[in-house]
Amino acid sequence: MEDMIFYDRLQFAFTITFHYIFPQLTMGLSLLIVFFKWKFLRTNIDKYNNAAKFFMKIFAINFTMGVVTGIPMEFQFGTNWAKFSELTGGIIGQTLAMEGMFSFFLESSFLALFIFGEKLMGQKLHFLTGFLVFLGSWASGWFILATNAWMQHPVGFEILDNGKFVLNNFSALFSNPWLLPAFLHNQLASVVTSSFVVASIGSFYILRKKQIEYGKLFLKTGVIFGLISSVLLAFPTGDWNAKNVAKHQPGSFAAMEGIFKTEEKGAEIVLIGQPNMVAKKLDNKIAVPNVLSFLTYQEWDKQVPGMDQFKKEELPDNIPALYYSYHIMVGLGTVFIGVMLVAFIFLWRHKLYKTKILLWTIMFLVPFPYIANLTGWYTAELGRQPYLVYGLLKTADGISPTVSSGNTLFTLLGFVALYMLLGLLFLLLVGKAINQGPKPQTH
Amino acid sequence: MEIFWFIAIAIVLAMFFILDGYDFGAGIIHLFFAKNEEDKEVITKSAGLFWDSNEVWLVAGGGMLFMAFPTFYASVFSGFYLPLIIVLWLIVFRAIGLEFRAQFNYQMWKDIWDASFGVSSLLLALFFGIALGNIVRGVNLGGVENGISTHEGQYFFLPLWDSSFSPLSATPGIIDWFTIIIGVISVVTLAMHGANWIILKTNSSINEKLKSVIFKLNIALAILTVLSLSVWQIVRPESLNNFFEKPYLIVFPIIYFTGLIGLFYIKKLKKDIYGFIFSTLIILGGITSSLASLFPVILPSINNVNESLTIYNTSAEEYGLSVALVWGIIGFSLIFIYFIVQKRLLAGKIDKMDYGKH
Ligand code: HDD
Ligand code: HEM
Ligand code: HEM
C-alpha cells in the first residue's frame, strides 16, 4: 500500500511538473504576442508583425507540447486517483469540464486560424483571433486554479453518508477566497517566464550580432513586461497568497516559513537557514526579528503559531522540501525584481544594449523563472499534504483501489522515457526557430 | 437529468470519433497508400490543421464524464489502466508526428514522423474499437472470484488478455476475439472515413485509387458487420431487448446501414462530400446503436454478484447536474459558433489554399 501511494504521487508530480513547463509559457507569451500584434495595428511597422509571427512559431511548438502532456493529466485523475475522482467528481468535475468547454475549444479553434489565416482574414480579424487564443489560455488557467483552489480550501459542498462530496453552491466555486489571489499570482508568474524568454532571445541576438534590430525590440519589451510583472508578483499578489495560507492552512504556513517554535513577541522572517528535523530547529539561520508578524498581520508583535502548536497529523509530511521550495521561489522572485530593475535603468539611460554583462545575465537567467514557477507549485501542493482535499480527504484514501504498484511503476517509467524524448525534441525545434530568427517579409 | 447528460456525452464522443476519426483514418491511409512526397505532405496537412481542435472533443468528453458520472469515470479509467495509458502515449506520438514532420527537410526525419503518425493512428483506431467492444461485452465488476467480490463492487481491473481469449470466460481480458472483431471494424471504418476526407480536402494523386480502396473496404465492413452482429448475440444475448421494447431506437441501426449501403456507390457519387457524409453516418450509427442497445447500462457486469453500472447508479447529484445544464448550453452554443467560423474560414481543398508558411 505504502509504495502504491508513493508511485502514484511520484507519477503525478513528474507528469504535472513536465506539463507545467509549457502552459506557463503559453499563457504569458500569448499576452506578448497580442501586444506585438496590437503595436503593428497601431503603427503599421512590419517589425512588430514579424515579431508576433516569430513568437507564434515558438508558441505553436510549445502549445503542442502542452496539449500532449495535458491530456494525460486529465486522464490521470481517473487512472491513478479513482477513489478521489469518485468522491469529488461531482465538484471538481464541474470546473474541469468547464475548462474543456470554455477554454480549450476557444484556444484550439482559433489557434489554427491565427497560425494559418493571416492572409485569409485581414489584419484586424487576425488580431482578434490572437486575442481569443490569449483569452482561451487564461481561461484555462482560471478553471484549473478554481479546481486547485477547491482542493486547497473546499467550499460550497456537503458530505453524504457514503463519503461523497456533493456540490450545493455552484457560485462558491468561483468566489472561493483562495482563487483570485492564486490566479493573479500564477498568471503574473507566467508573464514573468515569458518576459524572460523574450528578453533572453533578444539578448542572444544582440550578443551574436545578427538580427540586432529584433534583438533590441525583444529585449526592451521583455524588460518592461518583466519588471512590471515581477514587482506585482511579490506585492501585492505574493503577499496576499501568504496571508491566505496563514489564515486557512496555519500548519503549512509555519512549515513554509520554517518556524519551529512559536515566539511570544512576534515572529522573525527567515532569509537563510536549513531545517533540521531532528533537533527541530533551523541550522545556520539568518533572520530578521518581527518582520513576519508585520508582513502577515501588520502588527510587529502579533504571535504566529509555530510548528510546535500543531499535532503531527496537521503538518505537511515533507517539511524540508516545502520549506526549500518556498524559499527558492521567494528568493528567485527577489532576484528577478533586482535584475529587471537594473536592466530597466540601463535601458532608460540607453546603455542596456552595450552592457555585455547584463546581456549575458539576462540570457542565462531564462531557466530560473521556470524553477520559480515549479517550486511555487511545490509549495502549494506539498503544503496541502497529507490531504488531497484540505482537512477532509487524505491523499492515501484517494488512490485507485485496483491498480497495482507494479503497473504504476511501469507507466511512470514509460512517461519518463517518453517525456525525455519530448524534451529533447522541444529543445531542438525551439533552438532551430530561435537560430533562424524572425524573417523579414518577402514581398 | 442523467439522460440529458448521457445524450450530451454521447454526442460529444460521437463528434470526437467523426472529427478526429477522419484524421485517424488519414493516418491509416497515409501509412499504406501515400507513396510520393507531395501526397504525404497534403495528407499530413489535411489532418495536421485540425487534429488539435478535433482532439478537444475527447478532452471535453472526458471532463463531462468526470463531472456527470464520476463513479463510472473512476471505475473505467482505473479498470482499463494499462490500455488507457498506452492510448495516451499513442496520442502523443501521433500529435508530434503531425506537428514535427514539416520542421526539417530531411527524408529520414520525415520518414520517422510519417511512421509515428501512421502507426499510432492505426493502433489508436484499433484500441478505440477494442474499448467499445469491452464496454458492450461487460467486465467482471468487483473482481468476483468464486462468488465473492475482491474489492468494491463498482471497481474492476482487466489484464490485457486472458489465456482463453474468449469473451465468454468468467474473467475476460481486454483483448479477446470479440473485442478484436470490433477493433478491426473500427480500423476499417475509420480508414474509409479518412479516405473520404482526403478525397474531399485534397487534390492528391491517389484520390481516384482511394475510391476503389473505399469500395473494397466497404465490402469487408459489410462482412464484418454481419459477423459481429451474429457473435454479439452469443456474447450478450439481451442486446436486442431494447430495440424490441422501444422500436423507435431502430433509427440508429438504420443510420448505420444507410451509410454502409451509400458507400457502395462511392464511384458514382457526384460530390466528394457525399462520401464523407456516408462514412460519417456509419460512425454515428455504429456508436449510437451500441449505446442504445445498452441503455441505461453503461458498463455491464458479467457476474451476478455486482450490479451493472448504469447512468443512475454512477451519476453525480441532481443539483450539480442541473447547474451544469445551464453552463453546458452556453458552452455548446459557443462551440458551435467556433466550429462554424473555423470550418468556413478554412474551407476548400488544402493544396489550393494559401496558408503562408509557418
Ligand atoms: C515566477 C514565479 C514566481 C515567483 C517569482 C514568486 N511566485 Fe509565489 N507562486 C508561484 C510563482 C512565483 C506559482 C507557481 O505561480 C504559485 C503556485 C500556486 C499558485 O497559485 O501560484 C505560487 C504560490 C505562492 C504562494 C501560495 C503557496 C500555497 O498555496 O501554499 C505564496 C504564499 C507565494 N507564492 C508567495 C510568493 C512571494 C511572497 C513571492 C515573493 C517574491 C513569490 N511568491 C514569488
Ligand atoms: C503546474 C502546477 C502544479 C504542480 C507543479 C504540482 C505539483 C504537484 C506535486 C509535486 C505533487 C506531489 C505532492 C506530493 O507527493 O507530496 C502533486 C500532487 C497532486 N496535485 Fe498538483 N501540482 C500542480 C497543479 C495541480 C492542479 C492544478 C491540481 C488540481 C487540479 C493538482 C492536483 C494534484 C493532485 C490530485 C495530486 C495528487 C495527490 C497528492 O500527492 O497530493 N495539482 N502536485
Ligand atoms: C492536474 C492539473 C491539470 C490538468 C488535468 C490539465 C489538463 C490539460 C489538458 C487536457 C490540456 C490539453 C488541452 C487541449 O487539448 O487543448 C492542457 C493544456 C493546458 N493547460 Fe493544463 N492541466 C493541468 C494543470 C495545468 C495548470 C496548473 C495550468 C496553469 C495554471 C494549466 C494550463 C494549461 C494551458 C494554458 C493549456 C493550453 C495548452 C498549452 O499551452 O499547454 N494546466 N491541460
Report the structural category of chain A: mainly alpha
The helix/strand class of chain B is mainly alpha
Largest interface, with Cβ-Cβ < 8 Å? A-B, 71 and 69 residues
Distance between the termini of chain B: 46 Å
Task: Say what oligomer this is.
Answer: heterodimer
Mean pLDDT of chain A: 87
Describe the fold and architecture:
The complex is a heterodimer of chains A (443) and B (358). Chain A is built from 14 helices and six strands. Chain A is mainly α and 443 residues long. Chain A has one domain. In chain A, the strands form three sheets. Chain A has a two-stranded antiparallel sheet with strand order 1-2. In chain A, helix 3 packs antiparallel against helix 5 and helix 8 runs antiparallel to helix 11. The model of chain A has no long low-confidence stretch (mean pLDDT 87). Chain B has one domain. A two-stranded antiparallel sheet of chain B has the order 1-2. At the A-B interface, helix 2, helix 3, helix 4 and helix 14 of A face helix 3, helix 4, helix 5 and helix 12 of B. One protoporphyrin IX containing FE sits at the interface of chains A and B.
